[in-house]
Amino acid sequence: MTSTSYFPTSQDGQIVWLSHYDLKLPIYGAICGISDQEINNTQTDLAYYIWMLQHWHPSIQRDAKESTAYKTMMVTGSSSINGTINYPQPSVFPQAPTSTSPGIQKRLFSQIVRIKAGANYSEAIGHDLGIIAIPNNIEHLIPIPSILVERGESGQRVAISFNKYGHDGVWIECRINGGEWSFLAIDTLKPYYDERPLAEGNTHETREYRLRWWDKSVAHGEWSTVLSVLLGV
To answer: 3-state class of 204 per DSSP?
Structure first.
């Protein structure tokens, strides 16, 4: 059986790995015998795969839990609650990229086997593509956040989730509409909720987030992958 020990087991780790492979494949694909058409097809696969893991699936799971809880409350809850309670609104997430056919992971791992078998393949290429297993892999070296736009008490909010991997917490920064990065929060419990309203005069905002580790009152380490959301739509 072909080893895929380079592929993270956690869903958050997979998002980071897939994004990295998507970035590096155009650099090394042709060198290792992968055609331009296959590279394009793989990037279509990866965009859809990442969207499912990062946006669609978490949103659907959350909506399912909230709808079940609402149904239970309405059917069997206390009648002493005053007034009506509206049903939970569905999550808002980015529009899906171009759809693709089933078997994304099978095609991806098959491609990696062929890359490793190529005459021009080297360990340096393998490490840069992230297809060689290494100790203390990336999901322990940097925070791996996931974000979700959801409905809060006062409107849209952004939920930022992460795994601490034994660290005290994370230092979170944000930038809005391509502006300067600024400190947002130190958080030790997930998720962190960014419930700030849109800036005065804005009808929508693109917010980007990055995280680094925070231990013993000091922020340190490399930044996470930057994740972005669109609010006000």
So the answer is: coil
Structure tokens at 62: 């959350």
Q: How big is the chain, counted in residues? A: 233
Bond before 135 cis per omega within 30 degrees: no
β-partners of residue 152 are 155
Residue 172, sorted as left (phi over 0), alpha (psi -120 to 50) or beta, turns out to be beta
For tokens 């006062």, the residue is: 154
- The one-letter code for the residue type at 170 is V
Provide the pLDDT for residue 233: 65
The model's pLDDT over 54-83, given as tens digits with 9 standing for 90+, comes to 899 988 888 888 898 888 888 887 666 666
Can you give the pTM of this predicted structure? 0.58
Domains of the chain: 11-138 (no CATH), 142-231 (2.60.40.10)
Give the Cα separation of 119 and 206 in Å (integer).
Answer: 44
Residues 6+ positions from 175 with CB-CB distance below 8 Å: 181, 182, 207, 208
